[in-house]
Amino acid sequence: MKQISERDKTPLQYAVKSLCLSVLCMLLSSLVTVPSSLAQTVKVTIAQTNNLNGRLFAYKSSG
Amino acid sequence: MLGGLARRVTFIDEMKAKDGSLVCVDSGRLFQDPRVEDDAEKVRMNARLMGRVYRRMDVTAVNVGDLELLQGIPFLRDQASQGLNLISANLVDPSTGDAMFPPYVIHTVETVRIAFLGLLASDVGPEITRALGNDAMVAEPIERAQLIVPRLKNKADVVIVLSCLGLEKERELIRKVPGIHFVMGGKEGRFFSKLLKEGDTFIAQSYWAGMYTGRLDLTLRDRVSPFRDAGEKFRIKTEIADLNRRLERIKNVLDEGKNSVLEFTLQKIVKKREQLEEKLESLERSPESGNLFRWQVVPLNDTYREDRDVVDWIRKAGFTENAHQ
């Protein structure tokens, strides 16, 4: 088995650190970023009113 | 019989009971116009009543329109403090430029975030300027939207503008501010059986004086696709069937004798039918994917009984059906 010299250790440690950091970044970004697809279809209904003009009572005719 | 505040409450209650994800919004001009009424105190009382009923319906966002401004900022602040969810992106403090009310609200249904942003026209008349005094000013709406809508990109999946701008300005807004999915307007109070389109954005209006309620059903499959009208195929098929009936009638008349006007009409209808058939064919070919919407303008007719509490509130406030209201 090949011995790792003290001289080789620093770049190896650097590579391991970089790998750990990039995995951590990926994990964090997956937590923060909202995926573009939805796990399931979402249905929403919006009821809109406009221009009520304070009208309290019903109209007797459609006009 | 169409409309009425007490019937509207029942309609919303029934919709909520059927569908828990119902969101209620108002695009503005909720209050009476004091310029056309004699009794200012009655108009104020009417506005209080409207505010109370809209709180009762748990309306997610009420856009501040020009008629709301005529009641003055202290009254609107009081309404907001009581729980009326007033929004406006361009009603600002004249000294700081900050919005007087939240510029938008974000409503989440399951994992979908829907932003409702409020805008009103800045060309206000002298009465509104007087009513606002030094309390507030109406900033240019498109400039404000250009500042705020890009910020919503990471906060919301659907952006809906509640607008009291008027149709022409709404089209300009859509052209100048990308990222808006729907504009729910209504300043003109028109009846839109189908939504207008400007680019990929749709514009809604649901008539006036509360006779109808606009109903927008959204089906979201992802956060990026533009919306398509789910009712378009059905509408085209109905239109083709109508044209076929008209063609049949014209042909029957033409069988009895020559008529150049009818022959011209017949050719126009045939051409129109060809265009519709072509559009239908292209819709049939396109895959059923992406996000969909369906729009209906629902009449508030006799099938909805009046909410007794609201009838009582109206009566106790001194309003009777025989009066102007």
How would you characterize the overall build of this protein?
Chain A has one helix at residues 6-32; one strand spanning 37-49. Chain A has 63 residues and is of the alpha+beta class. The longest helix of chain A has 27 residues, at 6-32. Chain A is rod-shaped. Chain B is α/β, with parallel strands linked by helices and 325 residues long. Chain B has 2 domains: 5-221 and 293-316, Metallo-dependent phosphatases (Purple Acid Phosphatase, chain A, domain 2, 4-Layer Sandwich), CATH 3.60.21.10; 232-285. In chain B, strands 5-6-8-9-11-10 form a 6-stranded mixed sheet, with helices on one face. A 3-stranded parallel sheet of chain B has the order 1-2-3. In chain B, strand 5 (104-109) and strand 6 (112-120) form a beta hairpin. The chains are: A alpha+beta (63), B alpha/beta (325).
Main structural class of chain A: alpha+beta
> Could you tell me the mean pLDDT of chain B?
94
How many structural domains of chain B? Answer: 2
Numbering strands along the chain, what is their spatial order in the largest sheet of chain B?
Answer: 5-6-8-9-11-10
Main beta-sheet annotation of chain B: 6 strands, mixed
Number of strands of chain A: 1
Q: Segments of chain A where pLDDT lies below 50 for 5+ residues?
A: none
How would you spell out the order of helices and strands of chain B?
Answer: HEHEHHEEEEHEHEHEEEEEHHEH
Number of helices of chain A: 1
Rg of chain B from C-alpha positions?
Answer: 23 Å
- How far the N terminus sits from the C terminus of chain A, by CA atoms, comes to 94 Å
Helix percent of chain A reads 40-55%
Q: Please give the oligomerization state of what you see.
A: heterodimer
Question: What is the radius of gyration of chain A?
Answer: 31 Å
* Gross CATH architecture of the largest domain in chain B: 4-Layer Sandwich
Terminal residue distance of chain B: 14 Å
Shape of chain A: rod-shaped
Strand proportion of chain A: 15-25%
Roughly what percent helix of chain B?
40-55%
Order of helices and strands of chain A: HE
Residue ranges of chain B: pLDDT <50 for 5 or more in a row? none
